[in-house]
Specification:
The chain is mainly beta and about 70 residues long. The chain contains no helices and 7 strands. Helices cover about 0% and strands about 45% of the residues. A hairpin with a 6-residue loop joins β5 and β6.
Protein backbone atom coordinates (compact mmCIF):
# COMPACT_ATOMS: atom_id res chain seq x y z
CA UNK A 1 0.00 0.00 0.00
CA UNK A 2 1.15 3.54 -0.68
CA UNK A 3 0.24 6.71 1.21
CA UNK A 4 0.96 10.16 -0.23
CA UNK A 5 0.40 13.81 0.50
CA UNK A 6 0.86 16.73 -1.84
CA UNK A 7 2.67 18.65 0.91
CA UNK A 8 6.38 18.39 0.30
CA UNK A 9 8.41 16.04 2.49
CA UNK A 10 5.60 15.09 4.85
CA UNK A 11 6.77 12.69 7.56
CA UNK A 12 4.28 9.85 8.02
CA UNK A 13 3.67 8.21 11.41
CA UNK A 14 1.20 5.61 12.59
CA UNK A 15 -0.87 6.48 15.64
CA UNK A 16 1.57 4.76 18.02
CA UNK A 17 4.31 7.18 16.91
CA UNK A 18 5.91 4.63 14.58
CA UNK A 19 7.74 6.47 11.82
CA UNK A 20 6.86 5.07 8.37
CA UNK A 21 8.95 7.45 6.19
CA UNK A 22 8.52 10.52 4.02
CA UNK A 23 5.47 10.68 1.74
CA UNK A 24 4.99 9.00 -0.57
CA UNK A 25 5.66 5.94 1.58
CA UNK A 26 5.01 2.26 0.84
CA UNK A 27 4.24 -0.26 3.58
CA UNK A 28 2.61 -3.64 4.18
CA UNK A 29 -1.15 -3.33 4.57
CA UNK A 30 -2.89 -4.83 7.59
CA UNK A 31 -6.67 -5.05 7.81
CA UNK A 32 -8.51 -2.79 10.22
CA UNK A 33 -8.70 0.82 11.34
CA UNK A 34 -5.51 2.87 11.26
CA UNK A 35 -4.59 6.45 12.08
CA UNK A 36 -1.82 8.18 10.15
CA UNK A 37 -0.19 11.42 11.29
CA UNK A 38 1.44 13.71 8.70
CA UNK A 39 4.02 16.26 9.81
CA UNK A 40 6.16 18.76 7.91
CA UNK A 41 8.11 21.85 8.94
CA UNK A 42 5.97 24.97 8.49
CA UNK A 43 2.71 22.98 8.30
CA UNK A 44 0.01 22.00 10.79
CA UNK A 45 0.41 18.38 11.94
CA UNK A 46 -2.72 16.49 10.86
CA UNK A 47 -4.11 13.02 11.66
CA UNK A 48 -6.21 10.97 9.25
CA UNK A 49 -8.04 7.70 9.80
CA UNK A 50 -8.27 4.96 7.20
CA UNK A 51 -9.79 1.48 7.24
CA UNK A 52 -8.08 -1.26 5.24
CA UNK A 53 -10.06 -4.29 4.09
CA UNK A 54 -8.71 -7.82 4.39
CA UNK A 55 -8.00 -8.37 0.69
CA UNK A 56 -4.49 -8.61 -0.74
CA UNK A 57 -5.19 -5.73 -3.13
CA UNK A 58 -2.74 -2.83 -2.94
CA UNK A 59 -4.21 0.51 -1.93
CA UNK A 60 -3.13 4.03 -2.90
CA UNK A 61 -4.15 6.66 -0.34
CA UNK A 62 -3.84 10.37 -1.10
CA UNK A 63 -4.54 12.81 1.69
CA UNK A 64 -5.21 16.55 1.21
CA UNK A 65 -2.42 19.11 1.37
CA UNK A 66 -1.31 20.03 4.87
CA UNK A 67 -2.24 23.57 5.89
CA UNK A 68 0.58 26.06 6.30
CA UNK A 69 1.15 27.33 9.83
CA UNK A 70 0.06 30.93 10.34
Amino acid sequence: STLSSSSAASDVYKRQGIYKGKAPVTFAKSAGDHIFVLRADGYVTTAYSYTFDSTDTDVYIKFPDLKEQQ
